[in-house]
Amino acid sequence: MPVLDGPIRRLGRTSVDWDEEFREALLVAASSAVRGDAYQGVTAVKHLIAVLRERDPELAERLKSAIGTGGSSTRNAALSPGRVAAAPLDLDRRMPLSTIQNPMEGLAPVLAPEPAARLAELLDEHRRAELLERSGLQPRRTMLLTGPPGVGKTMVARWMARSLELPLAEANISVIVSSFLGRTAQNIHELFEFARANPVVLFLDEFDALSKQRDDAHEVGEMKRAVSTLLLELDRPPQHGLVIAATNHLQLVDLAIRRRFDTSIELDIADADVAVSILELHLKQDLPVPIRNVAKETLAGTSGAHIKTLADAARRRAALSETEVSTCLLQELARTAKTTESRKILAQRLRTVLNDDANSMSSIAELLGVSKSTVHGYLRGTNK
Ligand SMILES: Nc1ncnc2c1ncn2[C@@H]1O[C@H](COP(=O)(O)OP(=O)(O)OP(=O)(O)O)[C@@H](O)[C@H]1O
Ligand SMILES: [Mg+2]
After folding, report:
1. Which CATH architecture has domain 83-266?
2. Are 123 and 110 in contact, with CB atoms under 8 Å apart?
3. CA 368 – ligand 1 centroid, Å
4. What is the pLDDT of residues 86-128, one digit of tens each?
5. What residues flank ligand 1, with Cβ below 6 Å?
């Protein structure tokens, strides 16, 4: 198959043989049409347009209107799993090196302003890659996501694939890391070749397992070879799509590998505002302000995964008991408030929420599963 990324790279140079570019792009477009590969075809036509823009602007315009909105519909076509070649296999165990999913549905993650803005910027580069290409530039192709467990790294990878309308090829790290000599490095190479040949978001979760520091005294030659291969592969990332690596243990990742990524984004546990937005997202409803405040204080500093578990528990409880979700949420918050300090905060907040309730002390005691005198103790010395 003709190499598609040739024309794009060469477009950035000052002296270009336009005839050669034109012929090559035309060949790619034609062979894609014959193979029925709409994504490659439209991409090739876009290259033709770029080549023609200077020399024959009228033809460039006509080609542009001919593909019309084909860009997005063909991307949707690429979403069907049949459009993507089967994932490569580990040759010894005959197991796939990645699973391919089409994350068409799902919630968008709630993130702190900085990572949210940086991800939006990256998406924008990919959506308007054509504009960048006109200036001989490319969108960033590799991203390292870091952060503690449960902060949404996997969720972000799925959401990026969905936003880019591309399938997600999630690497099976346990298959890639092989006990056969040289196989791990070869598997890494095969996986990147696959991503180069198919427009996908390649997701390397638990990335530290592939990219351990090479000076690690316990590390054997096999992993050193794997890291060297990764360095080479990251130096020539796929020319469409995106490579996302995620790790909870950035400190374990080889320094040279870290530097290879076009961008690195850190996700963190939620502050009070983000926590309550994650909660409302998973509860599928907004909360009354006083209950929001209770949630803010108790959930700040926890992970999105923890908040999601809590929201699901509250919704289940509400469905089974036919009670308001917000009441069930308070019960769940009370159940998970383990330390005396958090129980105190909750008791104080609940008093505000239950302000009009003449039996508020008994209600708080019941919610917290403690006696009324303990609640009095929690509230002693605090004003309403
Ligand atoms: N920022 C977030 N916004 C909304 N929901 C979130 C967020 N973070 C986590 N969640 C919820 O928690 C679930 C688990 O999070 P996810 O698996 O993405 O975390 P992770 O960072 O990949 O964790 P790990 O390091 O353990 O792999 C998500 O599917 C989602 O429902
Ligand atoms: Mg994960």
Report:
1. 3-Layer(aba) Sandwich (3.40)
2. no
3. 28
4. 888 988 888 999 999 887 778 999 999 999 999 999 999 999 9
5. 109-111, 147, 149-155, 248, 278, 281, 304-305, 308
